[in-house]
Design brief:
It is built from four helices and six strands; from the N terminus they run ααββααββββ. The chain is an alpha+beta fold. It is elongated.
Length: 159
């Protein structure tokens, strides 16, 4: 009889401790899908030539941070930089993301690492590739990018 109680307690403990972790895993998967949907929409918007809608994937705040060839802050500055650098469909080209990894940090923040490829004609600036690390924040308007660290390796030159 004592063995039956021990087994029953062990089974009960296994259920009690595994159910919350299963639920957390399901919640993390749901949030990961929501974040990936933001990135998928950004690719669609970019490839349509719609910078304004593409930018909606970022939090509209003066506190957002961009790290690239220089450090800059703010939504308005980001939109202006995109307009200046990619103001025509030819300069925008066709964007794709790959190697995406979403890592939830808690209920409100997550990071995403990945690779981008921008396919453009020579007149549009040529192709561009690089890696990125994004920090997403869950806001009342959904998941938004609040930090963007994009690395573009220097172009190879022939010696």
């Amino acid at each position: 009889m004592r063995i039956v109680r021990v087994v029953a307690v062990m089974v009960f403990a296994l259920i009690v401790f595994s159910v919350p972790s299963m639920l957390l895993g399901q919640a993390a998967a749901k949030e990961s899908q929501a974040i990936r949907a933001v990135l998928d929409k950004q690719v669609e918007d970019w490839n349509r030539g719609d910078l304004e809608t593409f930018a909606a994937g970022y939090k509209n705040s003066p506190d957002i941070l961009f790290i690239g060839s220089k450090i800059s802050r703010g939504y308005a500055q980001m939109v202006e930089t995109y307009r200046r650098n990619y103001g025509t469909k030819e300069k925008m080209g066709t964007l794709s993301f790959s190697e995406l990894e979403v890592q939830p940090l808690d209920e409100k923040f997550a990071t995403v690492t990945g690779h981008f490829h921008l396919e453009r004609t020579a007149a549009g600036g040529g192709n561009s590739d690089g890696h990125f690390l994004l920090v997403f924040e869950k806001t009342p308007d959904g998941w938004k990018i609040v930090r963007d660290d994009t690395t573009v390796p220097p172009k190879k030159t022939c010696d």
